[in-house]
Design brief:
There is one protein chain. The protein has 202 residues and is mainly alpha-helical. 52% of the residues lie in helices and 12% in strands. The chain has seven helices and six strands, in the order αααααββααββββ. The strands form three sheets. It has a two-stranded antiparallel sheet with strand order 1-2. The chain has a two-stranded antiparallel sheet with strand order 3-4. It has a two-stranded antiparallel sheet with strand order 5-6. Strand 5 and strand 6 form a beta hairpin.
């Protein structure tokens, strides 16, 4: 096992999680900007860092970092194919593959399969653009995931805002709920009153 690589993956994930835990969008952009070129080089040189090379926690860390590389959807798609092969070889988990599958499909304008990507509507957390809702729990079970209702309840218990916007007027962080698919949303800063309209999102 490559202990140095495992340690570096875990270090980067710790920094990633600290940035996301702070809900500071600038910190998230910064940490993702550091991780993207590093991940690209890592995978270009050595392929997907599977469990036999980095340990189960290192392989999971690699997935988590890629999961947050939304700035480069083509790279996420490349990694999805590599991760699928790693799962087939016992080098990664089906659960991690399910999460990245949903992320990539949504970025490509398609419906997600497992309901892992959620948003908030009317105070409740719901899956974004989910295909075949009736069969989702069966698909989740096959991937080693629990029932969708239980998963959504975990988000409800956190009671976190769905998204944040840095106000261009006063710099305050303004929480808002993302719109439905392909709908713009107008966010009003409670501090200075500035309204910002965001474009369509998936």
């Amino acid at each position: 096992m490559d202990d140095a690589l495992r340690a570096e993956l875990l270090r980067r994930v710790e920094k990633d999680q600290a940035a996301r835990g702070s809900l500071d969008s600038d910190a998230m952009v910064e940490v993702d900007g550091e991780n993207l070129p590093w991940l690209k080089e890592l995978i270009a040189v050595g392929g997907w860092p599977g469990a036999s090379r980095t340990g189960a926690d290192g392989a999971h860390a690699a997935w988590l970092l890629v999961q947050h590389m939304d700035a480069d959807p083509a790279f996420q798609r490349q990694c999805l194919d590599l991760l699928a092969a790693a799962v087939a070889d016992g080098e990664a988990t089906p659960a991690d593959l399910a999460y990245l599958t949903d992320r990539v499909l949504l970025a490509e304008g398609q419906q997600q399969v497992y309901g892992t990507q959620v948003t908030r509507r009317g105070g409740a957390w719901v899956p974004r653009h989910l295909g075949d809702p009736a069969g989702v729990d069966e698909r989740r079970m096959a991937a080693g995931l629990g029932p969708l209702a239980q998963y959504l309840q975990g988000f409800a218990d956190r009671a976190l805002p769905a998204a944040w916007l840095n106000c261009a007027g006063c710099g305050a962080r303004v929480p808002f709920e993302p719109p439905e698919v392909d709908e713009p949303v107008t966010v009003r800063c409670a501090g200075c009153g500035l309204q910002t309209t965001l474009g369509a999102t998936r």
